[in-house]
């Protein structure tokens, strides 16, 4: 931030109201988050009756115990980390060069390529042909099925392109070319280092996508040892959610007993799972925030 | 690789006068940049595209997509002739626009506010906390909404009562459904939505601010005339992209908040298709409805893009 | 599936590049099953093992995620016993439908579908297309147990036979569970506090009970926080738990389709009795005897209310599951009440069979062996084995000839149901099997016996019957019903809520019926009538 020597009254007022606004946002958002944390360690009955509304009541760790006693959970974490890291790297390799190319006004055919990509945002062949494609590529039950079909997203390409277009001065590119710099060198040596914020954003968007994804693993994976965290957690939740879905329509006594034995911990696990699956990814965010500080890049352009 | 002379030419402002071939050649590397993305979209998106035809067919699994019998526009007719067609369309549009009207500007305002605050623990905390709700699953989200708004025990209801007002039947009154849906969505995604604008704000030139300070511009003025214009291109593009997704309203959260009392306000295209699919795996029908959505969305996108291109220099193409 | 379009070729050339990237992929062994085992396997018609050479088949089932199926004792012993190795291509239970549809649509079937819950429409569809193979001849030759079952119960055969005369799936046969849906239970504490020793028998008496719950503070906490009757919102069925039992008071057996004693099929939402039901419910609503949160609360919220001893009448499998605490014979089962317009209440009884539990696909190289395998599950011995695991783990015989058993202590202090779930796949899924009283012989608690007694005297002895048999519609009928129902059921559900809550006055009843007719309510009854007549004459 620019440090002004003198702050006028108006400026101070403006700053104060900004702080108030942010504090308000903080309170509004943090309450349900605390609620989730508390609900994950409170007696479910107190949660459901509304007796627990802020701080935990009748402490219990059964929910977490149930999650962490599951032998698949650590393997799930490991798998998710692997899929997220490799998947995100692939995403960046595919997305960044393409968005940069599309941002260049002297790139002949960029309109066509843009249209070619945008079309897929609206029209898709659907689940069945996609499944057949993955099957015919021999990717069923492999990591490839989780990573390759989501190697890029139109949305992110467009966002990155907009960033390159609006922040990289045209003169920079022209100057580089006059200096005899190739497009490849220009991109790697100059553009990328200047674009740390968008690289961070893309890594975050794609990374979170991989982290939260379960549908591809549901469809394409058969082998449980390859399940990512979200799949494992879903499995834990399956029984818990049965109670809600079959209310009033019992199939057999045996099912009802199964449901009942799980229903007790249902809400505990539901909230616990949120905490378990999101804490790691939330923890990543503060590290990325330093790329969002004003002026990190422009200084180097002028230099 | 290329001779220095040729590259030097590429910096020439009289670029436009060159032949197409030369213009292609001098940026040959950019085509390499595009190649992985193109290959990806070709294989994984255009490859399965033939599946769209089942919207005009009665999909029979054993006969395959190409072998199933054609039925023309039957599925579209069934959808258009549905008793609820206009309700569904209205609900889908109104929820989407409501969401856009409230949910679109808020992240921009929040991002601008973040930008004014000095980097430190406070900023970091607020940023991280507001970003966190994005990760709450739909099931838990809906569960919390129902708990907080429960007439007998909900915290929000108790607060409203405590303030001396009579709370509305938020969960069952059709008039409130859209507000509940949109506001909870805003709560969940505003913080996440700031990220892209924060990245764009990092492109603000500090020298502009220094110059403005010298000129005696207030903080608010500087925000309005320096920071905001910097992110306008991003705002425009995000708006266009959002407009292109108007009918793409998801079904999960709505379904979880839906009940027979608020149904007239809460039933949208995606929940309708979901129910149709529950009865029977109706691939053809849901593909047809999906295709209808896509066509409407594309028309919206093209229109908005045209407007954007006329009124500013920012557009998708 | 054959794809010959040009884009496909492009895709395939891309495939070569991509397979290099996908180096970590393992080949899908399930696809090649059967081919390696050759054609000369002999399947014995009785005794074990079933096959003379090892056979490997792939099986797909919903998985509740407690134990890998490979590690389940029951399935391991079954493999040794039969000589048939199964490879599991399971999908988590909550997403099983998605995966099942995909598997059918993509042509990549498993050899066996287990506990798949195939709808009659799916059976016919996929049967007609040859994806599921007809089983009737296999039953004749290779399923002595199931064949005997069909001979004893001709209705079962009627109900599992598709209109084209073929049997495409084997059912879950339930001989000991008679409830149509979870019963309603009275809160015994309230009955005691209100000194009620005779349960309500008419709608008026029921009304009086609910009214007293509301007004006389039966939980004795000095606050009028009692909720006489409570229901929950479920995605597709608000009030279903109450509706199921109250419709009978007005002579209606089922919420959608039922057949009366003169073999006439009715579509409930346009019946006069349905109007009376709505009127009664509206009365309960307007006097706050029906929980006003019934349309918006979750099952957990209702449960929390009941656990604070606030609810007077509620639905669950057993009362204690909602009320909390130990199983108790103090909370009596709701005995269906009657209104003035009928002589006796209509009571629905469980159909006893659920079709679509087991099917064999065309890719199965050993249909005969598969049939023998599943037939075991329809014998007492096999049903027992799959229900509770092998003797000596969860239970043991005290008198083997009389089939009397007792439970053994569960290792590691686990819950019995959790332990059972690690032994056998038949946990929480509609698996093909025969459930009969003998299975639980000796294992029943006093509470179980009491519940049976309640069921006998309050439902079965009072004339409970199956409201509408489990039957098949033809493909055309099914298509028409599906397309009618998508709007019709939405409309009916909305209007039910509106009539009950008073948002729609009963003056508009005729307009409502007209709309239902316009949307095809009569046609739904007609189609089902035709199907019923066919079923009846078979």
From TrEMBL, chain A:
Keywords per UniProt: Cell membrane, Membrane, Transmembrane, Transmembrane helix, Transport
Origin superkingdom: Bacteria
Keyword Cell membrane included in the entry's annotation: yes
GO-annotated biological processes: transmembrane transport
Domain called ABC transmembrane type-1: residue spans: 77-280
Membrane topology value: Multi-pass membrane protein
Entries under PROSITE patterns matching the protein: ABC_TM1
Record flagged with keyword Heme: no
Database matches in InterPro entries: MetI-like, MetI-like_sf
Gene Ontology terms: cellular component: plasma membrane
Main localization category: membrane
Transmembrane segments: 12-37, 81-100, 112-134, 146-164, 186-208, 268-288
Cellular localization per UniProt: Cell membrane
Coiled-coil regions listed in the entry: none
Family designation: Belongs to the binding-protein-dependent transport system permease family.
Stated name of the protein: Sugar ABC transporter permease
TrEMBL record, chain B:
Stored SUPFAM superfamilies: MetI-like (SSF161098)
GO biological-process terms attached to the record: transmembrane transport
Gene Ontology CC annotations of this record: plasma membrane
Alphabetical list of Gene3D superfamilies matching this protein: MetI-like (1.10.3720.10)
Signal peptide start and end residues: none
Transmembrane segments: 28-47, 88-114, 135-160, 180-200, 228-251, 283-304
InterPro entries xref list: MetI-like, MetI-like_sf, UgpAE/MalFG_permease
Topology with respect to the bilayer: Multi-pass membrane protein
Domain of life: Bacteria
ABC transmembrane type-1 domain: residues covered: 89-304
Keywords, ordered alphabetically: Cell membrane, Membrane, Transmembrane, Transmembrane helix, Transport
Recorded coiled-coil stretches: none
Record localization: Cell membrane
Family indicated by similarity: Belongs to the binding-protein-dependent transport system permease family.
Protein name from the UniProt record: Sugar ABC transporter permease
Species of origin: Paenibacillus albidus
Automatic annotation (TrEMBL), chain C:
InterPro entries in UniProt: Bact_solute-bd_prot1, SBP
Keyword Transcription: no
SUPFAM superfamilies from the UniProt entry: Periplasmic binding protein-like II
The keyword Chaperone is annotated on this UniProt entry: no
Keywords (A to Z) from UniProt: Signal
Protein origin, superkingdom: Bacteria
Signal peptide boundaries: 1-29
Protein name, as recorded: Sugar ABC transporter substrate-binding protein
């Amino acid at each position: 931030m620019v440090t002004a020597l003198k702050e006028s009254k108006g400026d101070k007022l403006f700053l104060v109201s900004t702080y108030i606004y942010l504090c308000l946002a903080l309170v509004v958002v943090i309450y349900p988050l605390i609620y989730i944390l508390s609900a994950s360690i409170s007696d479910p009955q107190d949660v459901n009756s509304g007796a627990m509304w802020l701080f935990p009541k009748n402490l219990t760790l059964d929910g977490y115990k149930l999650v962490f006693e599951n032998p698949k959970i650590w393997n799930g974490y490991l798998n998710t980390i692997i899929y997220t890291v490799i998947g995100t790297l692939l995403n960046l390799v595919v997305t960044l060069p393409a968005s940069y190319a599309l941002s260049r006004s002297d790139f002949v055919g960029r309109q066509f390529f843009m249209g070619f990509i945008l079309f897929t945002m609206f029209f898709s062949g659907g689940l069945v042909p996609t499944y057949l494609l993955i099957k015919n590529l021999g990717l069923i039950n492999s990591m490839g099925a989780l990573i390759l079909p989501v190697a890029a997203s139109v949305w992110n390409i467009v966002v990155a392109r907009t960033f390159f277009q609006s922040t990289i001065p045209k003169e920079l590119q022209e100057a580089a070319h006059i200096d005899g710099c190739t497009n490849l060198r220009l991109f790697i040596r100059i553009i990328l280092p200047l674009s740390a914020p968008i690289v961070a954003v893309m890594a975050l968007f794609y990374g979170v996508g991989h982290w939260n994804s379960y549908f591809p693993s549901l469809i394409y994976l058969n082998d449980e040892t390859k399940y990512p965290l979200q799949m494992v957690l879903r499995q834990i939740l399956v029984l818990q959610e049965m109670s809600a879905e079959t209310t009033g329509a019992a199939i057999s006594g045996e099912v009802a007993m199964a449901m009942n034995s799980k229903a007790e911990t249902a809400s505990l696990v539901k909230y616990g799972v949120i905490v378990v699956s999101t804490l790691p990814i939330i923890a990543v965010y503060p590290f990325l925030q330093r790329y969002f500080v004003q002026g990190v890049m422009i200084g180097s352009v002028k230099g | 690789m290329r001779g220095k002379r040729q590259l030097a030419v590429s910096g020439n402002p009289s670029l436009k006068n060159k032949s197409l071939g030369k213009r292609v050649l001098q940026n040959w590397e950019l085509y390499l940049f595009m190649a992985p993305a193109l290959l990806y979209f070709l294989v994984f998106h255009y490859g399965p595209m033939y599946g769209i035809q089942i919207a005009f067919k009665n999909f029979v699994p054993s006969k395959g997509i190409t072998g199933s019998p054609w039925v023309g526009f039957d599925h579209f007719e069934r959808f258009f002739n549905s008793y609820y067609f206009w309700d569904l369309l209205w609900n889908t549009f109104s929820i989407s626009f409501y969401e856009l009207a409230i949910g679109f500007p808020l992240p921009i305002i929040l991002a601008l506010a973040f930008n004014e605050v000095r980097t430190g623990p406070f900023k970091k905390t607020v940023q991280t906390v507001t970003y966190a709700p994005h990760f709450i699953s739909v099931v838990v989200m809906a569960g919390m909404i129902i708990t907080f708004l429960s007439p007998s025990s909900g915290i929000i209801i108790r607060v409203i009562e405590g303030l001396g007002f009579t709370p509305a039947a938020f969960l069952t009154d059709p008039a409130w459904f859209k507000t509940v849906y949109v506001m909870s969505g805003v709560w969940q995604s505003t913080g996440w939505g700031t990220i892209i604008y924060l990245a764009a704000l990092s492109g603000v030139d500090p020298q502009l601010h220094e110059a403005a300070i010298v000129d005696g511009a207030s903080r608010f003025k500087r925000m309005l005339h320096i920071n905001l214009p910097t992110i306008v291109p991003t705002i425009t593009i995000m708006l266009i992209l959002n407009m292109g997704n108007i009918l793409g309203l998801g079904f999960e959260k709505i379904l979880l908040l839906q009940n027979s009392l608020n149904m007239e306000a809460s039933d949208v295209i995606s929940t309708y298709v979901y129910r149709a699919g529950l009865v029977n795996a109706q691939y053809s029908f849901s593909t047809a409805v999906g295709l209808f959505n896509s066509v409407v969305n594309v028309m919206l996108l093209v229109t908005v893009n045209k407007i954007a291109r006329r009124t500013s220099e920012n557009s998708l193409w | 599936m054959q794809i010959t379009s040009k884009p496909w070729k492009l895709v395939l050339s891309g495939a070569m590049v991509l397979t290099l990237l996908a180096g970590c992929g393992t080949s899908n062994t399930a696809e090649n099953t059967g081919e390696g085992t050759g054609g000369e396997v002999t399947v014995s018609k009785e005794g074990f093992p079933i096959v003379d050479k090892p056979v490997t088949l792939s099986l797909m089932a919903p998985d509740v995620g407690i134990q890998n199926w490979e590690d389940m004792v029951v399935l391991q012993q079954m493999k040794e016993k039969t000589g048939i190795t199964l490879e599991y291509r399971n999908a988590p239970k909550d997403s099983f439908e998605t995966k099942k549809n995909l598997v059918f649509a993509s042509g990549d079937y498993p050899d066996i579908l287990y506990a798949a819950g195939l709808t009659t429409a799916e059976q016919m569809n996929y049967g007609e297309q040859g994806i599921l193979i007809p089983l009737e001849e296999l039953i004749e030759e290779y399923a002595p147990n199931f064949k005997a079952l069909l001979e004893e119960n001709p209705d079962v055969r009627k109900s599992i036979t598709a209109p084209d005369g073929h049997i495409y799936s084997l059912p879950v046969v339930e001989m000991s569970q008679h409830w149509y849906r979870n019963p309603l239970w009275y809160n015994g504490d309230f009955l005691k506090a209100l000194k009620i020793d005779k349960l309500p028998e008419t709608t008026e008496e029921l009304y009086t009970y609910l009214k007293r719950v509301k007004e006389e503070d039966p939980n004795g906490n000095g606050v009028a926080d009692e909720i006489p009757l409570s229901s929950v919102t479920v995605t597709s069925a608000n009030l279903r738990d109450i509706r199921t039992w109250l419709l009978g008071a007005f002579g209606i057996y089922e919420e959608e389709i039922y057949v009366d004693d003169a073999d006439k099929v009715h579509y409930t939402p346009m019946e006069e009795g349905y109007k009376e039901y709505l009127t009664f419910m509206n009365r309960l609503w307007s006097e706050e005897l029906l929980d006003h949160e019934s349309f918006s609360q979750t099952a957990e919220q209702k449960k929390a209310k009941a656990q604070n001893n606030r609810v007077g009448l509620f639905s669950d499998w057993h009362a204690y599951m909602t009320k909390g605490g130990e199983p108790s014979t103090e909370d009596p089962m709701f005995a269906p009440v009657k209104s003035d317009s009928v002589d006796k209440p209509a009571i629905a009884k469980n159909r006893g069979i659920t079709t679509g539990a087991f099917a064999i696909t065309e890719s199965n190289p050993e249909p005969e062996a598969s049939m023998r395998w599943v037939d075991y599950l329809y014998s007492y011995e096999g049903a027992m084995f799959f229900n509770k695991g092998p003797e000596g783990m969860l239970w043991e015989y005290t008198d083997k000839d009389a089939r009397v058993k007792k439970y053994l202590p569960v290792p590691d202090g686990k819950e019995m149901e959790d332990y059972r779930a690690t032994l056998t796949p038949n946990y929480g899924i509609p698996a093909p099997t025969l459930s009969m009283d003998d299975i639980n012989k000796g294992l029943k608690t006093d509470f179980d016996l009491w519940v049976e007694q309640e069921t006998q005297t309050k439902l079965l002895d009072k004339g409970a019957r199956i409201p509408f048999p489990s039957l098949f519609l033809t493909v055309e009928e099914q298509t028409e019903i599906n397309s009618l129902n998508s709007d019709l059921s939405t409309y009916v559900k909305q209007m039910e809520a509106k009539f009950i809550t008073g948002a729609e006055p009963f003056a508009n009843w005729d307009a409502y019926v007209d709309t239902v007719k316009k949307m095809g309510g009569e046609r739904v009854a007609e189609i089902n009538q035709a199907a019923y007549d066919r079923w009846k004459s078979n």
